[in-house]
């Protein structure tokens, strides 16, 4: 919180504390001299951030990322987040944050080098990775399902070749 905001909050609190009460307190609301107020029991006052104030007042680029908001004819899909705008580099993250305003693009995280993105990487409401085991190169969508008590092909089923014996076909992935 900025110093000016803190001073404003203190001034408002002192103003309201010094104002006379409109009516005498009712008996059941009276504060007893021995009563103490524990920390965290009073409601917190949350003042809007500079970005929120800018958006409320109709600013063109409130988050300062250099892209006009869509409300003002620009292409910024979220003018409250300076790390989210068209053309920004998409990061492979596990919290679903979209950096480039395209829910279908996700960052690349392929720790095992099998060409499939870790399924923990996603955009909220959009695309996600498909590799169910990013630590083993031969476990990925389309891999041969082996009778090994592991979901080799990432279809959500373990050893779903009931009654069949594994016969390798093709070659291992790149």
Characteristic key phrases:
single chain; 174 residues; little secondary structure; 2 helices
Shape: flat
Strand content: under 5%
Order of helices and strands: HH
The major sheet is characterized as: none
Terminal CA distance = 52 Å
Output the number of helix runs. Answer: 2
The class by helix and strand makeup works out as little secondary structure
Number of strands: 0
Q: Radius of gyration in whole Å, from Cα?
A: 28 Å
Helix content: 10-25%
* Average pLDDT rating: 77
Uncertain runs are 24-29
Structural account:
- The chain is built from two helices and no strands.
- With 174 residues, the chain is mostly loops.
- Among the domains are: 47-86, no CATH class; 103-164, no CATH class.
- The protein is flat and about 65 Å long.
- The two termini are 52 Å apart.
Short account of what is shown:
With 174 residues, the protein is mostly loops. The chain has helices at 3-18, 50-56. Among the domains are: 47-86, no CATH class; 103-164, no CATH class.
């Amino acid at each position: 919180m900025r110093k000016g905001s803190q001073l404003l909050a203190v001034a408002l609190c002192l103003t309201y504390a010094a104002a006379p009460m409109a009516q005498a307190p009712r008996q059941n609301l009276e504060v007893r001299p021995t009563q103490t107020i524990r920390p965290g029991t009073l409601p917190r006052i949350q003042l809007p951030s500079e970005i929120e104030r800018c958006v409320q007042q109709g600013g063109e680029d409130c988050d300062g990322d250099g892209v006009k908001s869509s409300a003002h004819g620009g292409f910024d899909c979220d003018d409250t987040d300076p790390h989210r705008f068209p053309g920004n580099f998409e990061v492979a993250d596990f919290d679903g944050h979209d950096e480039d305003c395209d829910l279908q693009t996700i960052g690349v995280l392929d720790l095992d080098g099998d060409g499939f993105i870790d399924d923990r990487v996603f955009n909220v409401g959009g695309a996600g990775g498909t590799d169910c085991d990013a630590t083993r190169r031969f476990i990925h969508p389309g891999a041969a399902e082996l009778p090994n008590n592991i979901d080799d092909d990432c279809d959500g089923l373990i050893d779903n070749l009931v009654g069949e014996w594994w016969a390798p076909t093709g070659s291992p992935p790149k």
